[in-house]
Write a structure and sequence with these properties.
This is MFS general substrate transporter. The protein is globular and about 75 Å long. Helix content is 61%, strand content 4%. The strands form three sheets. Strands 5-6-7 form a three-stranded antiparallel β-sheet. The protein has 571 residues and is mostly helical. It has 19 helices and seven strands.
């Protein structure tokens, strides 16, 4: 007899295995950000155009990944998640080697594009996590591990790119200029990343279990029986109690209301269970979203408003939608894409654009040679690859700290709407001050860069989950969350993908200050757009510290909430 979902153990071993796979990918993704600007110059691109072509290299992977993601999603539905995930990792490893040995820009661009096309892990790994977790109480802790390991991998990947590129230049005693790494100065960080990925593939081949459920057959009770004899209805609905009337099920949304199994309310309730536990797996795997895992960033940029994490390391519980019949005349139904939803998607797209543009152009600005003393509106800071690697790695730690500790405390005391509003309002400050860093004394230049990184992490990590909460609160029914999430994800990912080459072109044409003031203007557009964003009550919101759940596990009481901060209605 199959275990009740509440009795299912936490899949620690499998989450560690898939976490290693997730950890290995940003080693390759994030390392390119540190050296792409100097690499394209070494490949024959003029310094004037280097920032634009650097942006193309960064975006090429994501574009190819988005094109082929639906195909890999369909293949995983037939042949399983595990082979597709491992093939995706192999594609990243092979493309990294070719990229590191590229002799021309176009070979490097093709390697990035092929690597993205071969990688089917856009939605596969997050689906595998969903399929591993059978106990709903385990979901927050399980999902919290994914952005955590991605951030750690991104930190190491960023450091690798800065400290391992051009080894014959920086470590002449260990690497000869006429040797392999002298001929291919960007092979070493890609080789190390590829070795890490191959090790992840090997451990995945032996220890990672297939999560795709096969051999669906209807049983005598009208449920669905799988190859392991698990009844789908038993997984999605609470167990029947002895005192219940036959043909009725206990409500899960509003207490103990009972309705006939065949009623609309009962079917809606079943759909809600499906959305939150196992049914969402089908929605995810049948519709591969436009995701850009190949975009280098200090933290995981994926989100799914059908889940409780909202792209963070925490479980954020929003007041449930009222799907049960109410007395009195029904309120006028809201459209799926009402004004609030549309405005929030536009707002998220705006700051997704300038966030990714910032991440893309900052290494260029750090490496670019200065062109004037004092305030330099044309050139950069003239630092080294090692400086870039250090900045990006420490930026990862800053992002980890802000998301793990600052976010829940800040939102608890300020509120969801005010957190969103103030972050958007003050975001332009992050960009407008950067051109003036060059005027600082030499000993204050690095602290000035770290200050901008801190502002970017603080604004970006707080504003995104709050905007997702506001958007989800405006969605009229949980049954359309997948549709809204898909459009929001696609809009944000499209904005991030075009941001890199576009801001690179602006930098090439007008200089550093033009690029930074352009991002300031884009952030100001976000402030102006607040005029049309309706202010709506979010209701009670609970933040369950997922990072604490990962570090301090409490197996005796899985339903307990370790560190709940109750956020009142919008203040």
């Amino acid at each position: 007899m199959p275990l009740d979902p509440k009795d299912e153990p936490f899949p620690t071993k499998q989450l560690i295995i898939i976490g290693i796979c997730r950890f290995s990918e940003p080693l390759a993704f994030n390392s390119i950000l540190a050296y792409s600007y100097v690499m394209v110059q070494d490949l024959g691109i003029h310094e004037r155009d280097a920032s634009f072509y650097s942006g193309l290299l960064v975006s090429a992977y994501a574009i190819a990944e988005a094109i082929t993601a639906p195909l890999w999603g369909s293949i995983s539905d037939v042949y399983g998640r595990k082979p597709v995930a491992l093939i995706g990792l192999a594609g990243v490893a092979m493309s990294s080697i070719v990229f590191g040995m590229a002799g021309t820009f176009w070979v490097a661009l093709l390697a990035r594009f092929i690597g993205g096309a071969l990688n089917g892990n856009v939605a596969i790994m997050q689906t595998m996590v969903a399929e591993m977790v059978k106990n709903p109480a385990h979901e927050p802790r399980a999902y919290a591990t994914q952005p955590f390991v991605w951030t750690l991998g991104g930190i190491i990947g960023s450091a690798m790119g800065g400290f391992l590129a051009q080894p014959a230049v920086f470590y002449p005693n260990a690497f000869a200029k006429d040797g392999l790494f002298g001929k291919y100065p960007y092979l070493l960080p890609n080789l190390v990343a590829a070795i890490g990925i191959v090790l992840a593939i090997i451990q995945g081949m032996f220890f990672l279990k297939e999560t795709l459920v096969r051999e669906e057959e209807p049983d005598q009770n009208g449920g669905i029986t799988y190859g392991d004899n698990v009844n789908e209805r038993s997984r999605l609905l609470p167990p029947q109690q002895p005192h219940q009337i036959p043909g009725r099920v206990r409500g899960s949304v509003a207490g103990s209301v009972r309705e006939p199994r065949g009623s609309i309310v009962s079917l809606t309730r079943e759909r809600l269970h499906s959305m939150s536990v196992a049914g969402s797996i089908r929605h995810i795997r049948k519709r591969a979203s436009f995701l850009e895992e190949g975009m280098p960033a200090p933290f995981d940029q994926r989100f799914d408003i059908r889940r409780s994490s909202f792209g963070t390391m925490h479980s954020i519980r929003v007041a449930p939608h009222n799907v049960l019949p109410t007395r009195g005349p029904p309120p006028k139904p809201r459209s799926t894409f009402n004004k609030t939803v549309v405005m929030m998607i536009i707002s998220m797209s705006i700051f997704a654009f300038h966030q990714m543009a910032f991440v893309s152009i900052l290494p260029v600005y750090i490496l670019d040679e200065p062109m004037a003393r004092g305030v330099d509106f044309r050139g950069g800071l003239g630092m080294s690859l090692h400086d870039v690697g250090a900045f990006l790695a420490i930026n990862g730690f800053i992002a980890l700290f802000v998301q793990g500790f600052i976010f829940p405390i800040f939102v608890e005391h300020v509120g969801v709407w005010k957190s969103f509003f103030y972050m958007v309002l003050f975001y332009p400050i992050c960009y407008v001050i950067i051109p003036f860093i060059s005027a600082l004394p030499d000993e204050f230049v690095s602290p000035g860069v770290y200050f901008t990184l801190l502002l970017q992490a603080f604004f970006g990590i707080i504003v995104f989950p709050c905007s997702l909460i506001l958007m989800k609160n405006a969605v009229p029914s949980p049954l359309v969350l997948g549709r809204v999430n898909g459009l929001a994800m696609s809009a944000c990912c499209l904005a991030r993908t075009i941001a890199c080459p576009l801001v690179g072109a602006i930098y090439s044409i007008g200089g550093s200050a033009t690029a930074w003031f352009g991002l300031t203007l884009m952030a100001v557009f976000g402030v102006i757009q607040l005029i049309w964003v309706p202010k709506e009550d979010v209701g009670p919101v609970e933040i369950d510290n997922g990072l604490k759940k990962v570090v301090h596990r409490d197996d005796e009481n899985e339903d307990a909430i370790d560190d709940i901060s109750v956020i009142g209605s919008v203040r």
